[in-house]
Structure formats: C-alpha cells, structure tokens
C-alpha cells in the first residue's frame, strides 16, 4: 500500500491506479519517508526528496 504519485490516493501495488487511471507499473516500492509509490531504482524520492537509495542500500 502506498500513495499514488499522480492523484495522492492510497493504492496497492498495481499496474493502473484505480482512482486516476495512471500507469503505476514502473513503481515497485514506496518511499519509506513519505509513502508515495516510487521505483526501487530511484535514487531520491521525487515527492519528498529523501535519499531512499541510502536508506535501502546504504551501509
Ligand atoms: Zn492515482
Ligand atoms: Zn518520499
């Protein structure tokens, strides 16, 4: 469960947002800081700017 980056509503990990119809297939995780759906390949959260790469893969 996370937040759709397009409409801001709570969604499960799914291909298409049930609220706004946005393509969510590229998002496979959620930001541990603000909860928005993001790609696991992301370096920083586009919503809150947190360093998620450091959080996931940092020592
Ligand atoms: Zn949406
Ligand atoms: Zn965030």
TrEMBL record:
Q: Which domain of life is it from?
A: Archaea
Q: Where does the DZANK-type domain start and stop, copy by copy? A: 4-49
**Record protein name field:** DZANK-type domain-containing protein
Q: Which organism is it from?
A: Methanobrevibacter ruminantium (strain ATCC 35063 / DSM 1093 / JCM 13430 / OCM 146 / M1) (Methanobacterium ruminantium)
């Amino acid at each position: 469960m996370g937040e759709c980056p397009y409409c801001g509503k709570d969604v499960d990990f799914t291909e298409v947002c049930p609220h706004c119809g946005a393509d969510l297939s590229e998002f496979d995780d959620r930001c541990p800081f603000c909860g928005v759906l993001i790609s696991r390949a992301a370096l920083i959260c586009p919503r809150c700017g947190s360093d998620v790469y450091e959080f996931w893969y940092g020592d």
